[in-house]
Each structure stands twice: as C-alpha cells, then as structure tokens.
TrEMBL record:
Catalytic activity: an N-acyl-L-alpha-aminoacyl-tRNA + H2O = an N-acyl-L-amino acid + a tRNA + H(+)
Site features described as Discriminates between blocked and unblocked aminoacyl-tRNA, chain residue numbers: N9
Residues annotated as the enzyme's active site: H19 (proton acceptor)
Highest classification ranks of the organism: Bacteria, Candidatus Gottesmaniibacteriota
Protein name: Peptidyl-tRNA hydrolase
Site (Stabilizes the basic form of H active site to accept a proton): D91
InterPro entries membership: Pept_tRNA_hydro, Pept_tRNA_hydro_CS, Pept_tRNA_hydro_sf
Family in the record: Belongs to the PTH family.
Gene from which this protein is expressed: pth
Organism: Candidatus Gottesmanbacteria bacterium RIFCSPHIGHO2_01_FULL_46_14
C-alpha cells in the first residue's frame, strides 16, 4: 500500500498558492487514476480528506502545514505502513519554477511540513516529490546567495502564481502527477531518473 500525501493548507484563502501545489497534484492524480468522479472522504479520525483506489490512499491533510505530521503519523499507524510507503508531494523554493526532484530521505531544507512529518515518523526515509515553485525576487541578481528573511519566505510561499507563471504552474502540476504515476507503475528508480 502507498500513502500519497499532497501538502498544502486547508481553506479557500490558500487555494492556488505556491504552498498548496501538493494539493493540486494529488487532485489531478486522483482524477487521472479513476474512471468516475472523485469524492473525497472528510475523515475526522485522521483529520484529512482521503480518497482510496485499490492499494493507494490519497491524502490532503486538514491540519496546517506545520502539523501535517500528525495526520501522516496517524495514517501510517492505522495502515501499519513502513515510512518508505509514504510519498509526499510538496513545494520547494530551492528549485526553479517547473523543476521536479524525486528522492528518498534527506533533510527538510527548512520546509515545515517535511519537518513535521520527520518528527512524527521519527525518520527521514520517506519519498518526496519536490516541485519547484521558484524564488522570491530578493534571491535573484547580486543577492543570489543571500538567505531570505523568514517572513519573506512565508509571504512568498503563501502567494499565488503570477499571470506570467500560470502556464508553467499548470504544466508543473501535470508533470508532478506523471512523476507519481511513473513511480507507482514503473518503479521509484525510473521516476527518479526521468524527473530530474
């Protein structure tokens, strides 16, 4: 069984933001992998929207990003899963807009959702589909190596994609969905090689 978790924040005000691209990919993936309409189950026990197809459970946590580990840990315990069966789809400001990296394990790179999952699973050995959402303007030009102020990072990831980025964002969601499907049907190594 695989637990495929899209990261995002619940609520209308966060829809379409960079931080919610994990939700967008999971929505598309669930639609692409079913023949009928996708009806998400609002599960109170795990505090998440769930959608199950065969041995794959799609998850959109209803906790805010900093606490997604609570939902993931609860589902891992309920299904008795190994952490390697947890696949997390999330935004990454350290990758250029449109880039995808598939990896198992590693640090959080400051992503609070990943930090929360690591804390609750007590390991970093889960799969991540990192989706590049670009960088704030302060990190371009002569300040390229300057560390972004924490508040600016938060404001940036909670911002919506600009008009000029909309096409690339849609393409990124589509490619993110394809990357997960390749990993499911052709293996993790194939996905890692193809989406790099």
């Amino acid at each position: 069984m695989k637990l495929i978790v899209g990261l995002g924040n619940p609520g209308e005000k966060f829809e379409g933001t960079r931080h919610n691209i994990g939700f967008d990919v999971v929505d598309l993936l669930a639609r692409d992998m079913t023949t009928g309409q996708v009806t998400w189950d609002k599960n109170q026990k795990h505090n998440a929207f769930l959608y199950k197809i065969s041995d794959v459970v799609f998850v959109k946590p209803l906790t805010f990003m900093n606490n997604v580990g609570i939902t993931v840990g609860s589902l891992v315990a309920f299904y008795k899963l190994d952490p390697s069966d947890v696949w997390v789809i999330h935004d990454d400001i350290d990758l250029p807009l449109g880039k995808i990296r598939v990896r198992r394990g590693g640090g959080s790179a400051g992503h609070h959702g990943i930090e929360s999952i690591m804390a609750h699973l007590k390991t970093d050995q889960f799969v991540r589909f990192r989706l590049g959402v670009g960088r704030d303007v302060v990190s371009r030009g002569p300040n390229v190596n300057k560390k972004l102020d924490h508040r600016r990072v938060i404001a940036f990831v909670l911002s919506r994609f600009g008009r000029g980025e909309a096409g690339e964002m849609k393409h990124l969601v589509k490619r993110g969905s394809q990357a997960v499907r390749v990993a499911l049907f052709d293996g993790f190594d194939r996905a890692q090689n193809q989406f790099h």
